[in-house]
Design goal:
The complex is a heterodimer of chains A (about 110) and B (about 120). In chain A, strands 2, 4, 5, 6, 9, 10 and 11 form a seven-stranded mixed beta sheet that branches. Chain A is mostly beta strands and about 110 residues long. Chain A is built from no helices and eleven strands. In chain A, about 0% of the residues lie in helices and about 60% in strands. Chain B is mainly beta. Chain B is about 0% helix and about 55% strand. Chain B contains no helices and twelve strands. In chain B, strands 2, 5, 6, 10, 11 and 12 form a six-stranded mixed beta sheet that branches. In chain B, strand 10 and strand 11 form a beta hairpin. Chain B starts with a strand and ends with a strand. Classes of the chains: A mainly beta (about 110), B mainly beta (about 120). Chains A and B meet through strand 5, strand 9 and strand 10 of A and strand 6, strand 10 and strand 11 of B.
């Protein structure tokens, strides 16, 4: 078990407010990822990290920022939430070169 | 570019029926191919994978063969159960650079198995 935890599991927020989602892992994996899941789009990569303070953009990074100040935590921030950011957000880690990703249980975010 | 196309759902089958979910891909380079399963309210779980042409991935009665000539990775199961009801995602992974791999996911196929 990779020990990956996302918080919160559910959140409702108002348009224009900042929101931070947290992904925590317990096994010191180098690579971490944030995805959003939307009907008809599958999973789309928002940002990823390949080490402490090392991050890069994915295909849908606009409106999102990330931070990784320590190996175990990868934070996703919506600086000013919009209704189009209503989605289910998944964090993932890569456990090794030959493996796929391991996903957290997701955060359901609703922006009203 | 890189992309994955899978058959649209939803798919509804009776218990013990044969399942096929089609998946084709477009990729630069030599991808690894994956099937993930998502049960209601949960994250994605790796179901099976294949890392090179002609490899067959298998798990829990599901199988998929990496077909380079047809750029396909169709998921099959001979006899589905109610507990197989879930959303299935096909995905490919390319080595982008030394900063990390990236996955490309299909849009998912919802399967419902009825008793």
């Amino acid at each position: 078990d990779a020990g990956i935890t996302q918080s919160p599991r559910h959140k409702v927020t108002e348009t224009g407010t900042p929101v931070t989602l947290r992904c925590h892992q317990t096994e010191n994996h180098r690579y971490m990822y944030w995805y959003r899941q939307d009907p008809g789009h599958g999973l789309r990569l928002i940002h990823y990290s390949y080490g402490v303070k090392d991050t890069d953009k994915g295909e849908v990074s606009d409106g999102y920022s990330v931070s990784r100040s320590k190996t175990e935590d990868f934070l996703l921030t919506l600086e000013s939430a919009t209704s189009s950011q209503t989605s289910v957000y998944f964090c993932a880690i890569r456990e090794g070169q030959s493996y796929g990703y391991t996903f957290g249980s997701g955060t359901r975010l609703t922006v009203v | 570019g890189n992309s994955v196309t899978q058959m649209e759902g939803p798919v509804t089958l009776s218990e013990e029926a044969f399942l096929t979910i089609n998946c084709t891909y477009t990729a630069t380079g030599y991808p690894s191919l994956f099937w993930y399963v998502q049960y209601p309210g949960e994250g994605l779980q790796l179901l099976l994978k294949a890392t090179k042409a002609d490899d067959k991935g298998s798990n829990k009665g599901f199988e998929a063969t990496y077909r380079k000539e047809t750029t396909s990775f169709h998921l099959e199961k001979g006899s589905v159960q109610v507990s197989d009801s879930a959303v299935y995602f096909c995905a490919l992974r390319l080595q982008q650079s030394n900063t990390g791999n990236q996955f490309y996911f299909g849009t998912g196929t919802s399967l419902t198995v009825i008793p």
